[in-house]
């Protein structure tokens, strides 16, 4: 067994030469450190059931799989809301949705690190998913986070400013979003195939340090976009339906203001 000493010497020399060559030759450009991350943009609104479902049951797989290491994830909590000319924002599922959209926008702004804001938003989305969204404030305690900065943000000008920024970003989408959840990988919307987002991320990644889960993903499952989404999504409303909704929303909003209720 093994090499005799006569055979070992040339083999050893070969290995040394190969090592030297690998050190001296220019490295390929697609090294793990230089490959750009795949951008993943998630456009959603807090009270759309399909969005909470996607967040809690699918988006979380990004972390379970380790694929988050090659992803630059950005959350955009705004969805199908609408900005009136005087900058009042109307949300598809009413004022409570506007409130939670703003809370989540504030969390992203206040805690820019994904490992801080993501668990907080995940916690809120879990409450929404369980139809207990009014209990969202428990998330501060659950995650041992100080509510002060977030409260200052969503009750004040900062929160409003952030939501108007998300409004502008969402309205600038090309192609425009048709419904939420709306998932965009490297600038390309996935349409109804959004639950398959991990495959698209793996396919888009140009680096050599491919996460193990990507190799296990069957990339040939990427389907063509034809059918309507099977999941309950929230569509952008028709213009006429929208203006009727705006009128009734304004009426109820004014009523609430008269009663001194918190918007
Ligand atoms: C914005 O306009 C709506 C409808 O015209 C009105 O009900 C609301 O009071 C206005 N809000 C502000 C902040 O001026």
Give your account of this protein's structure:
It is found in: Secreted. InterPro entries: Interferon-induced_GILT, Thioredoxin-like_sf. Belongs to the GILT family. It comes from Ziziphus jujuba (Chinese jujube). Residues 1-31 form the signal peptide. By secondary structure, this protein is of the alpha+beta class. It has a single domain (6-237), classed as 3-Layer(aba) Sandwich (Glutaredoxin), CATH 3.40.30.10. Helix content is 49%, strand content 11%. It is built from eleven helices and eight strands. It has helices at residues 5-24, 49-59, 61-64, 95-110, 114-129, 138-142, 147-154, 157-171, 197-204, 212-216, 239-258; strands spanning 38-44, 71-77, 82-83, 89-90, 179-180, 182-185, 188-189, 234-235. A four-stranded mixed β-sheet has the order 2-1-6-7, with helices on both faces. Strand 6 (182-185) and strand 7 form a beta hairpin. Helix 4 crosses helix 7. The longest helix is centred in the first third of the chain and has 20 residues, at 5-24. The chain is globular and about 60 Å long. The chain starts with a helix and ends in a 5-residue tail after the last helix. Bound molecules: 2-acetamido-2-deoxy-beta-D-glucopyranose. The site of 2-acetamido-2-deoxy-beta-D-glucopyranose (NAG) has 5 residues, from helix 11.
- Identify the strand order in the major beta sheet: 2-1-6-7
- Count of domain modules: 1
Radius of gyration: 24 Å
Low-confidence stretches: 1-6, 18-32
CATH architecture: 3-Layer(aba) Sandwich
pLDDT averaged residue by residue: 85
């Amino acid at each position: 067994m093994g090499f005799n000493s006569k055979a070992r010497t040339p083999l050893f020399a070969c290995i040394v030469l190969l090592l030297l060559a690998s050190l001296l030759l220019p490295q390929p450009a697609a090294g793990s450190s230089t490959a750009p991350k795949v951008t993943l943009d998630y456009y959603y609104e807090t009270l759309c059931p399909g969005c909470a479902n996607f967040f809690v049951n699918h988006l979380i797989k990004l972390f379970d799989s380790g694929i988050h290491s090659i992803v630059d994830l950005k959350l955009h909590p705004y969805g199908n809301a609408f900005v009136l000319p005087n900058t009042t924002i109307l949300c598809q599922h009413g004022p409570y949705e506007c409130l939670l959209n703003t809370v989540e926008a504030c969390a992203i702004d206040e805690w820019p690190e994904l490992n801080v804001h993501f668990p907080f938003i995940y916690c809120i989305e879990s409450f929404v998913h369980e139809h207990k969204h009014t209990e969202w404030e428990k998330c501060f305690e659950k995650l041992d986070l100080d509510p002060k900065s977030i409260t200052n943000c969503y009750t004040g000008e900062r929160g409003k400013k952030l939501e108007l920024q998300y409004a502008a970003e969402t309205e600038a989408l090309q192609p425009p979003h048709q419904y939420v959840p709306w998932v965009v990988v490297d600038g390309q919307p996935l349409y109804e195939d959004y639950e398959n987002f991990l495959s698209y991320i793996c396919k888009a990644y140009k680096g050599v340090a491919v996460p193990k889960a990507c190799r296990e993903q069957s990339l040939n499952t990427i389907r063509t976009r034809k059918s309507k989404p099977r999941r309950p999504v929230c569509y952008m409303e028709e213009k006429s339906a929208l203006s009727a909704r705006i009128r009734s929303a304004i009426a109820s909003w004014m009523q609430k203001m008269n009663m001194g209720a918190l918007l």
